[in-house]
Amino acid sequence: MKQFVRDHVEFFRQYVRQFETTGAVAPSSRSLARAMTRPLCACRDRDVRILEVGPGTGAVTREIVRHVKPGDTFDLVEINAEFANLMRKRFETQPHYRTVAERSTVHVCPLQEFEPEGRYDVIISGLPFNNFPSTLVEELLDVCLELLNPGGTLSFFEYMYIRPLRRMVSRSEEKTRLGEIEGILQSRFADHRFDTDWVFVNVPPAWAQHLRVGQPETGGRK
Asked: Is 19 helix (H, G, I), strand (E, B) or coil?
């Protein structure tokens, strides 16, 4: 309970200071975290490379570490230095994090500047796309998709109906931005989405969107 309270206090503090990159007033619920990690849970027959983008205070990270196997690799990319330090401390001090610490690395940088050693089988993103310029949303989505191995999955969440509701009450420039984001997402959904989870036990309720790129290669991994 103490950890739960500390996480929410820190999350709200960063929300006030850096709203554009935090994007929510509370960490994701356990139900949403489970939905976001569902494709990872399906990867039980092989070692996988996992990337979490924008872990924040680690609401989804806690669920990810439960599924990291001895042969897996787990990278975390966080632009907020305070959130990144919080995550590093957890890998150093908390028992269930320490069990996967040798296979886990926290990187402090924008995703566009991240230079991984290889591609990933599972990417889980907590980035608040609705807060970004549409050009940045498109860039971030495409970077994630390009970082996937054939057959790899990208999972991210969006709050239910928030974008159309915001468009209804926004001025023309904001309506245009949100409309462009909607178009970008729908285009990627048409090409890559294979499933959606409806998560009502979250504040606010959310969809977990799951995208896949191509089919797995039989001759090895890039």
From this structure: helix
CATH for 2-212 is 3.40.50.150
> Per-residue pLDDT tens for 61-95?
999 999 999 999 999 999 999 999 999 999 999 99
Distance (Å, rounded) from C-alpha 83 to C-alpha 87?
6
Distance CA 44, CA 53 (A): 22
Q: How far apart are CA 43 and CA 46, in angstroms?
A: 6
- Band of residue 27 on the pLDDT scale cut at 50, 70, 90: confident
Check: CB of residue 156 under 8 Å from CB of residue 209.
yes
**Cβ contacts of residue 21 below 8 Å, gap of 6+?**
54, 79, 80, 128, 131
Q: How far apart are CA 9 and CA 130, in angstroms?
A: 23
For the chain, the domains span 2-212
Structure tokens belonging to residue 17: 């200071």
CA distance 164 to 150: 33
